[in-house]
Amino acid sequence: MQILSPLSFNVKKPQIPPSFKPKSHQSNSNESSDYLIERGLKFQVGESFFRHESFTGRDLGVLAAAHYKRSNPELRVLDAMCGCGVRSLRYLAESGADYLLANDANDENRELIVGNLSQIPQFGVQGSKKWVVTHLDANRVMSECYLQKDFFDLIDVDSFGSDSSFLRSAFNAVKMDGLVYVTSTDGFSAGGHQPHNSLACYGAYIRPMPYPNELGLRMLIGGAVREACVMGYNVTPLFSYYSYHGPVFRVMLRVNRGRLSDMRHYGFVSYCHGCGNSQAFTWHELGKIFCSNCSAKPSSGSLVVSGPLWTGPLHDGAYLAELLELAQQWGWIGDGIGLDLEKLIKLMIGESDPELPFGYIKIDQIAKRAKVNSPPIRSLISTLQKEGYAVSRSHIVSNAIKTNCPMTTCVTIAKDHYNY
Ligand SMILES: C[S@@+](CC[C@H](N)C(=O)[O-])C[C@H]1O[C@@H](n2cnc3c(N)ncnc32)[C@H](O)[C@@H]1O
Ligand SMILES: [Zn+2]
């Protein structure tokens, strides 16, 4: 019997209106107006805040929305901080959103947003509005939707800095089993340079550790887990994406009713500067934190502890495999546009192995401790796998691995195999 994956049904390419015929895949201009083209869609950015580099984050959001629509009767999207409206346009044209609310607090962007969205007919076949543009504070627009019981399937909050006040409003306004796409651009907090700020915003005291950008994602997910818990909900990260420009930390969360009963993945992490060992601790182990390798304690100064934050998987591998299949069906794989989406999603799938702990180890750090030249990453991965460890690359740092092999064992293996 042939088994078809759910994505084998109803394969539809994004519907691109005729007026969007692509001229190129990047920026473009003509004599009357400057415009950009992303995935074949034409739009203007005017004076609004727009980053071409956020392209991959938009691709992932659009894929997730289209994937959602395949198994749900409708797709209502709230783009709470839409800027020029490019992602609103993409949710309509590519994900097939049935209704989209594009909001940006800056009403000077109105003409621009309306101009960009006007390329999609504003009214559907039954005369109902397909898209609406507002200029309210994001918290207000989401709270008003909640009060009016006007719930959304996907809420995208493309915010700046570490403003986490949007989490609760977004969870209020999203449908159960719906998606919330959140952002942080606070690299200082992720790097442990503003522990009081990370504590205020995400409830996590973050100290400097050698995998700051993964901690940035975990801090954001942890903050969302906590906010969801307050409301009697639980959230699951479907994918977590770090991008160096900004930097930008983005996480797609699925929201469900029912408080998280198992706090296994919401806890503390430690890093030992002495031996390089990293460990996770549950709430039950508070007060018993020490380095299991060299016995250093936090009071020794060499053991740093951060948390509470998300210590579980950053992504759902099966879900990402479905997004990859969808990207392939849409011809987005190997098309040479932007970052290599296939490579990114495959790296994320590798990182989803539940055997892998938080953090990553830079190859240079292993080599430095082992006093050998840095081994080639592929060779080291294969050696560790032969030794029985789970290993993947990291989508965050190209010259690093994620592994359940402790640093001290990595060092021994490097000395044994790469001492030439
Ligand atoms: C990162 S930009 C959005 C970029 C856009 N999503 C994209 O993909 O190109 C953030 C936008 O949020 C708007 N903004 C800032 N604070 C806001 C708030 N409290 N409520 C609503 N919009 C806000 C800004 O005017 C800005 O256009
Ligand atoms: Zn140690």
UniProtKB/TrEMBL annotation:
A Pfam family recorded for this sequence: TRM
GO biological process: tRNA N2-guanine methylation
Any GO CC annotation of this UniProt entry: nucleus
Domain of life (superkingdom): Eukaryota
Any GO molecular function: tRNA (guanine) methyltransferase activity
Keywords: Methyltransferase, RNA-binding, S-adenosyl-L-methionine, Transferase, tRNA processing, tRNA-binding
InterPro entries to which the protein is assigned, alphabetical: SAM-dependent_MTases_sf, Trm1, tRNA_met_Trm1_C
Similarity annotation: Belongs to the class I-like SAM-binding methyltransferase superfamily. Trm1 family.
Protein name from the UniProt record: tRNA (Guanine(26)-N(2))-dimethyltransferase
